[in-house]
Amino acid sequence: ARAHLAGEDDALVRVRPLLALVPAWADFLAGGLGDDEHAAIRAGERTGRPLGSARFVARLERRLDRPLARQKPGPKPKATARD
Questions:
Q1: Which of 37, 10, 4, 8 has its CA nearest to residue 23?
Q2: Burial group, residue 68, by CB count within 10 angstroms (0-12, 13-18, 19+)
Q3: Nearest partner of 51 among 33, 66, 32, 70, judged by Cα
Q4: Sign of the torsion angle spanned by Cα atoms 78, 63, 23, 1
Q5: Residue 83: per-residue pLDDT
Q6: Measuring CA to CA, how many Å separate 67 from each of 39, 48, 58, 62?
Q7: Are 1 and 29 in contact (CB under 8 A)?
Q8: Where are the alpha helices (DSSP H) in the chain?
Q9: 3-state class (DSSP) for residue 12
């Protein structure tokens, strides 16, 4: 948030993409979150899964070559040895 508020890149963040979407970053932050947004962020904190649309998560999965979306719960089937 500091880099976006200052409007300058730092070692971790490039601010241009987000500032193109939300030019008045301080005003955006001051607006606060609604209950739904707050709940979604809190759920992501507990699970460690990314917050975003299914398309966004699918792109992350391809880029990182690992599953990120919620998987079917329960034990996974054991692999069988084939001769």
A1: 4
A2: middle
A3: 70
A4: positive
A5: 53
A6: 23, 12, 9, 8
A7: yes
A8: 2-6, 16-21, 25-30, 35-47, 54-64
A9: coil
Asked if residues 3 and 10 have their Cβ atoms less than 8 Å apart, the reply is yes
Report the chain's mean pLDDT, rounded to a whole number.
84
Q: Which two tokens mark 80?
A: 């069988």
* One-letter amino acid of 39: A
Range among 1-5, 26-30, 54-58 rated most confident: 54-58
Cα–chain center distance at 49: 7
